[in-house]
Each structure stands twice: as structure tokens, then as C-alpha cells.
Specification:
The protein has eleven helices and four strands, in the order βαααββαβααααααα. It has about 250 residues and is α+β, with helices and mostly antiparallel strands.
Length: about 250
């Protein structure tokens, strides 16, 4: 997939997965580290990750990554607005808006280099080749409707861990699927519906203004689950009827 030309103020869906679909988050600490990288690497300034980690450890009383960061560096210059993110065992999704020329490319380079260096050292795989499946993929989001569909798709990704084929078959228990999303920490969905999780990592005002606030985002995601379930249920009923008639 050819990457689009990144334009300031425009929104892009960015994704990448482990090479050969291998797991890129093996432990809880890996998810925390990638989310930490999302925040720290989103800065035009040069960042020494070791120093940032040390700074956080010195202030255990601070409850958010952002609070700790602001104490040690008040001149932060974000490269992008991170609107949403979702981490899955072997891939990740981001929705970002570029703030400065070359912002997305620099952010993704810093993010990839930082996390891969951490992962390779932790799991002794320096000589085992690439962790990710080539360069990241990016899709230009051009309309509010496209943005809505992408956000709902990303936020409902974790349901795959509960029901592997739910996108094809529909959720067996939509209510259970909705509750599962509320328990899944490795996504910005909780922050988008007003439950504090990693609030410093994302900027949510644009989504709130576009879709009508926290309650509306929750409603959109839940309706997406119901829609996919009913759509696939109807398709399967037609398929069964066709088989009976053949």
C-alpha cells in the first residue's frame, strides 16, 4: 500500500503488525511500554527514553504520564495529535492528525525505533530480523463518516480476543462484548467514554466535537456492535435458507 502524502491538519489511520503476525506485546509491561512510547515519542525535541523512565520513577505519587512529563519538560512540541489508539497482541492501530511538516513520519520513526530497541533487548532478539511487517501503513481519513467507521472499527478490535470470528458471524452476546471493551485497558476507548485510563496520551476534543461527546461515542461503538451482529445474522439466515432450497 502506497502511503499518502501527509498534510498538516489532516487525519490518518495508521497500522502495523508483527512480521509473520508474530506477537509484539508478550507481557503486560510491553503494552505499558508502547503506550509510554506513544506519549514520549510525540515530541519534536530529542528524547532520551532512559531519562524519561527515571523521571517517572522519581515521582511515584503522580497518577498520569502527562503530569510526570510536564514537571521535567514544559517545552514539549507534539508532532501529531493522537486521536485514538488500540493495541492488539500482534498489531496496533492509531488515528492521528499531523501538526507539523513531516510530523507523522518523524513520530512513527521515533516510536518504531524506541519500541523495537526495547523489545529486542528484553527478549534477546537483536539478530532475529525485523519485529514489524515492514513500514507502517497509513490511510487518509477524508470525511466524518469515514472517521466514524474507522474509530468504531478500531475500538471494537479487542472483541476478537473474546470471539475470534465475531466480525464474520456477529457477536454471540452483544452485551458481553460491550462489557468486555470496558475492561480492555490497551485502547483509548475508556478515555473516550469518560473513564480515565491513559488520558495524557490522546487528544479527544476533536472527536467529542465531531461526534457529540463521550456518551455519543459510546453509543456509536455499541450501535456498531449491534449493527455488525444483525447484519451478519441476517446474512447467515439467508445463506442457510439458500442451502435448504438448493
Amino acid at each position: 500500500m502506497k502511503q499518502p502524502k501527509f498534510v498538516n491538519g489532516e487525519i490518518y489511520h495508521i497500522l502495523n503488525r508483527g512480521v509473520e503476525k508474530r506477537t509484539i506485546f508478550q507481557q503486560v509491561s510491553d503494552y505499558f511500554r508502547f503506550i509510554f512510547c506513544l506519549f514520549e515519542c510525540n515530541d519534536k525535541n530529542f528524547v532520551i527514553m532512559r531519562d524519561r523512565i527515571g523521571a517517572r520513577r522519581k515521582i511515584k505519587a503522580q497518577k498520569s504520564i502527562g503530569d510526570t512529563y510536564d514537571i521535567f519538560n514544559k517545552k514539549r512540541e507534539p508532532l501529531v495529535e493522537i486521536l485514538t489508539f488500540c493495541l492488539m497482541p500482534n498489531h496496533y492501530h492509531l488515528v492521528v492528525r499531523q501538526l507539523t511538516d513531516g510530523g507523522i513520519s518523524l513520530f512513527m520513526k521515533k516510536l518504531g525505533n524506541s519500541y523495537v530497541a526495547y523489545f529486542n533487548k528484553k527478549y534477546n532478539r537483536e539478530r532475529m530480523g525485523s519485529l514489524f511487517q515492514g513500514s507502517f501503513k497509513a490511510i487518509h481519513i477524508k470525511t466524518d463518516n469515514q472517521l466514524m467507521n474507522v474509530v468504531c472499527y478500531i475500538f471494537t478490535n479487542p472483541i476478537e480476543l473474546l470471539e475470534r470470528n465475531w466480525k464474520e458471524m456477529g457477536a454471540k452476546d452483544p452485551e458481553k462484548a460491550m462489557e468486555y471493551l470496558k475492561s480492555y485497558r490497551w485502547s483509548s476507548y475508556l478515555d473516550c467514554i469518560g473513564e480515565k485510563n491513559f488520558p495524557s496520551v490522546t487528544q479527544r476534543d476533536f472527536l467529542f466535537n465531531t461526534f457529540g461527546g463521550q456518551n455519543k461515542i459510546k453509543e456509536l461503538v455499541e450501535n456498531w456492535i449491534l449493527y455488525k451482529t444483525e447484519l451478519n445474522k441476517g446474512f447467515n439466515e439467508i445463506k442457510d435458507l439458500t442451502l435448504e432450497m438448493s
